[in-house]
C-alpha cells in the first residue's frame, strides 16, 4: 500500500446520509476478480443516467471536483453489506481520504486495510465542510501524523485514530506487511519447532 501522511486536495462534498455499499459499488460490477478497475463504477447509478450519459447534477461529474482526493459525506457512510469492493472502488477512483461523522464498522476497517484514511468528525463540523464545499471549491489539508484537517480558510478540525491503524497508514503497511516486521522472530520460532 502507498503510505499516507499529508493529503492536500479540493474536497468533494457528497451531502447524503446512509450511503450504503451497494450505492458505492453496485452488485452488477462485482464479477471482477482483481482489486483494480472498480473506480469507473463508483456511485455508478448516481453518476450516470439509464442511457449511460453523465448525470450533470451529480457532484462527481462537476469539473470543480476533478482529481479530488478527499470525499466528505454524512452519517453512516459505508453501511449495508460487507463488500470490500466499496473501498476498492473509492481508492481506484482516486479518493485517499473519506470524512464523515460516522462509518459502518466493517467499511471503516476495510478502509484501513486498503490504504484509505477514514476520518470521523463531529456532525456540525462535517456540515460546515459540506456547506463550504458546495458553495465553491474548497481545499483541505489532511495531516495524519498530527491528526488534523485544515481548511483553506485556516479552520482546523482534530480527529482521533487508533494508533495501530495510524502506523499502518503512515508506513503503507497492510496486515501481511505488518507480519513481515516480525520475520526474524518467525524464522527463529520455526527453527526451534521444526
Fill in the keyword field for this structure:
alpha/beta, 194 residues, single chain, globular, leucine biosynthesis, 3-isopropylmalate dehydratase small subunit, branched-chain amino acid biosynthesis, 7-stranded mixed sheet, Aconitase, domain 4, EC 4.2.1.33
Describe it.
Belongs to the LeuD family. LeuD type 1 subfamily. Heterodimer of LeuC and LeuD. It catalyses: (2R,3S)-3-isopropylmalate = (2S)-2-isopropylmalate. Catalyzes the isomerization between 2-isopropylmalate and 3-isopropylmalate, via the formation of 2-isopropylmaleate. It is an enzyme of class 4 (lyase). This protein is α/β, with parallel strands linked by helices. It has a single domain, classed as Aconitase, domain 4 (Alpha-Beta Barrel). It is 33% helix and 17% strand. It is built from eight helices and seven strands, in the order βααβαβαβαβββααα. The protein has a seven-stranded mixed beta sheet. The longest helix has 13 residues. The protein starts with 5 loop residues before the first strand and ends with a helix.
Task: Give the secondary structure arrangement, pairings included.
Layout (H helix, E strand, L loop, with lengths): L5 E9 L6 H4 L19 H4 L22 E4 L11 H9 L3 E4 L4 H9 L3 E4 L2 H13 L3 E5 L4 E4 L4 E3 L4 H9 L3 H6 L2 H10 L2
Parallel strand pairs: 1-2, 2-3, 3-4
Antiparallel strand pairs: 1-5, 5-6, 6-7
Amino acid at each position: 500500500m502507498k503510505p499516507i501522511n499529508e493529503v492536500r486536495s479540493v474536497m468533494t462534498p457528497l451531502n447524503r446520509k446512509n450511503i450504503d455499499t451497494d450505492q458505492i459499488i453496485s452488485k452488477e460490477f462485482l464479477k471482477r476478480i482483481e482489486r483494480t478497475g472498480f473506480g469507473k463504477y463508483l456511485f455508478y447509478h448516481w453518476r450516470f443516467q439509464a442511457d449511460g450519459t453523465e448525470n450533470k447534477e451529480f457532484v462527481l461529474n462537476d469539473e470543480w471536483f476533478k482529481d479530488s482526493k478527499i470525499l466528505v459525506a454524512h452519517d453512516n457512510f459505508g453501511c449495508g453489506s460487507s463488500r470490500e469492493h466499496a473501498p476498492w472502488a473509492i481508492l481506484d477512483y482516486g479518493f485517499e481520504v473519506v470524512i464523515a461523522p460516522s462509518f459502518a464498522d466493517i467499511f471503516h476497517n476495510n478502509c484501513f486495510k486498503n490504504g484509505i484514511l477514514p476520518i470521523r468528525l463531529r456532525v456540525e463540523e462535517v456540515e460546515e465542510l459540506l456547506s463550504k464545499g458546495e458553495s465553491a471549491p474548497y481545499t483541505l489539508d489532511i495531516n495524519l501524523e498530527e491528526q488534523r484537517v485544515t481548511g483553506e480558510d485556516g479552520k482546523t478540525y482534530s480527529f482521533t485514530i487508533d494508533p495501530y491503524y495510524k502506523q499502518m497508514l503512515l508506513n503503507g503497511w497492510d496486515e501481511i506487511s505488518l507480519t513481515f516486521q516480525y520475520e526474524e522472530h518467525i524464522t527463529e520460532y520455526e527453527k526451534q519447532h521444526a
